[in-house]
From TrEMBL:
Pfam families: GerA. Belongs to the GerABKA family. PANTHER family: LEUCINE ZIPPER PROTEIN 4, SPORE GERMINATION PROTEIN. The chain crosses the membrane at residues 284-306, 378-399, 411-435. InterPro entries: Spore_Ger, UPF0353/GerABKA_families. It is a multi-pass membrane protein. It is found in: Cell membrane; Membrane. This is Spore germination protein A1. Keywords: Membrane, Transmembrane, Transmembrane helix. The keyword Ribosomal protein does not apply.
Amino acid sequence: MKKENVPHYDLEEMKTYFQEAFHHSPDLYFYELNQEKRKFLFIYLKNLVDYNVINQSIMPAIIDSPVEHLLGSDEFSGNLPTTQVSPVTNREDAIQYILDGYLYITSDQTSTGVLINVSKKVERGLEKAETESLVFGPKISFTESLSTNISIIRQNILSTNLCTEKLTVGTKNETEIRIVYLNDLADKQAVEDIKKKISTLKVNDILDTSVLAQLIDDNSYSIFPQFVQTELPDRVTYSVERGMVAVFVDRSPMVLLGPASFFNFFESTEDVYMRWNMGSFIRFLRYMTIFLSIILTPAYVAIITYHYEMIPSTLLVSLGESRSKVPFTPIFEALILEIMIELLREAGARLPTKVGQTMGIVGGIVLGQAAVEAGFTSNILIIVVALSALGSFTAPSYLMGTAVRITRFPMLILAGLYGGIGIALGLCFLLIHLIRLTSVGKPYLQPVYPFNFHHALNTIVRVPTGLLRKNTNKQNFFSSRQVPTKDIDE
């Protein structure tokens, strides 16, 4: 009987090819296995794979399988502990899979190979939220694992209408992105707009959710965030059930929520867990303190510089005494204190938690007292600046609080130059900007502009639960109606 000639492929040439493709990385590992006059070559990155799966499952499957049942056959795949097995005919295609933690197996008697998912992801467990602390409600936060985050949402929203769509972004390092929404509540146009913006991105890599938000904003030059970023699963659940769209990014514990309204950044799920009157009071308190945070210091500068006749005579005496040793103008004095507050806040945020808190408290007291005694500032202005800083910290969203603090500086300059007229001018420009701003094509100031009474019931204020149940058919807070923007001269 004539022996069949079986072609043999050079495994050494295969090793050389992958070594050059990975630039001779020491993490690239090769292992040869001889089985029934055949040589098998295992190729993988040793830092990304699970050795137990390879040693206890993959190799025994190869050893126990007949020759005709190896590499790509259904019988071989059925003996493996995973269903993520796929044949590959082009070794160039195997490179990206190896970077994802796949094991590539080829033989000296075939030009093809198989890819087996044996990845071992490095991820942390579920922990308590750090950036968004709550008194009531669930305490867990998302992790850097996309599959874990999607599993949490699936457990929270037990509905067949929950849709999760997969996208990939990145020319050099592909990043998986998931679009999550409720099919019966989400605005279809908003979903399509988000998908279109993400799919048309031409970037090397998406490092984090905040980077993606900057790339898909309607107005990338605006200082105000146009997507809510949160690490709380209950916040995402609450928002998705109101018609918003959630965007998950692999390797990021933060989630984007849009279309976002200006008032969404002052909401907290803790408001829902409280009684409706308590929740409404706290929301109004946030609105009031944010407004005072913007105008309180500029109003002080404007009154001291141009409108001192508005100050009661008894208070005017105290102001005169406190400023008698200050050699600077009110605007320069206020800028010094505002910058000092920002330095303390930034230093406290970058230091370890315990050290940062101590440094912020001690630094504020010591620097404030020393500045008054040295004659750099008045004690009344220290109170005003401290109240303004506290007001900006009441916003649940860190990005919105930062935007408010930055907005205070141009308002302060306008107040020092033009007094009360400068403050009015700054507020007008701010209001015009917010009116013209959009989030995924929806007005940024909704439900105030355009006004919608039913949507405002549970956005600006909290309403009793019984009244809210009567409006369950109106829970999509982001209707498809869009107000066309017009130029100012129109």
